[in-house]
Give the backbone structure.
Amino acid sequence: MPVSVPAWLESLEEAFADSGHQLYIVGGAIRDELLGRKVGEWDLATDAKPSEVEKILRQKTKKIGLIGKRFGTVTADLNGNAIEITTFRGESYEEHSRKPTVEFGNSINEDLSRRDFTINAIAYDLRFNRVIDNHNGEQDLKARVIRAVGDPESRFREDPLRMLRAIRFAVTLDFEIEHNTFQAINLERERFAILSVERISQEMDKILLSPKPSRGIDLLVESGLINYILPELIPCIDLEFDPAEHKDIYSHILQVLDQTPAKLELRWCALLHDIAKPLTRQKIGGEYHFLGHEVVGARLTKDILRRLKYGNEFIDYLSKLVYLHQRIPNNDGHWTDGAVRRFVRDANQTLEDLFTFAEADSTGGNERKLEKYKQMRAELRDRIVELEKQAEIAKIHSPLDGEELMKIFHRPAGVWIKPIKEHLLQLVLDNQLDQEDKLAAEQIARQLMRQ
């Protein structure tokens, strides 16, 4: 496969060569380049130590990031291009440690042999313009396969996050996970427990924002990793119904997940909106009901997202979405104007997301019902727009109130005020007078008084 190297990167390679060092395109950058995908960030590998990398970059740009320097990584913005340069290395966890240990390597071949998957173990030698592929990564790219480099169990023991990354790559690239690699996830999944939740959350977000997030959740369930990330989902999977009595909750969650636009708040809402149904299920009059599942679900949402260490603002927004997600579907078309206004006030900044989610949450095989719900959502939205217009109209007023008119004409209150105010108001409603233009309003009022 051909590799297109931009001129700025060739210039950077020359700077490394002048300093006696090698520079290679690696990881996601060469993978995406070979797949014909847009490269978002250029991953590069070198034999230069981090301090030497920083020194070379200082000659090229002032925009340098050193947060990962002690782990061997220096980032930079070079002519508007995001680059990440990492010293040849291997990375692994101690038996019970949550923090990886880093060892610097000496060659690109050693560096590639310690990487996670064959499709990420390809390098491009910028000096000699050649692809280095000792693990048949190009072949797996063509076959659309995620395969661990070497022994998969060893790869996952070295860094258990790779188990989640395998699933993330499978769903974001639409690849299959090779059988032995997937089996190794099942065998090594207990190692997953040592990971920091921050690293897990980052991968989960990427899975949820993928083109078909339901496949990612299915793989998490099938691999058993869901037990360490979202155990609250498991009761939804195991909850059995007669199909004639109620639709399967887990299948519904996955369907809604795929129907929801790729916005993180909406995708998390799809995953969590019915998570409390197993806790609230009861049969009343021969039918299943889940009274208050949105209330319990909102509390569970806060607990889950706090455990995964999301920010407070995100947690509050998501719990509000889950809490209110039933409001629009529960609209029977008979809400009073006051009820509509209360809903808008309660929804506040979540209003648009609630309408978007309500559309995604409308599932089932009864086309007449789906069309009815769609029409009711449209009618509710129209009512909200109309009430907002009325509220804006209600705010329109005469530029001059009674007190101001009495001061202008030095007269006490009386019936003379009302016709002047009404005349001024009509001019404002007809866009012939700005309601803030008191000077023009006073001139018109004086003309009226002279008549």
User: Anything to note?
Assistant: The CA atoms of residues 163 and 376 lie 44 Å apart.
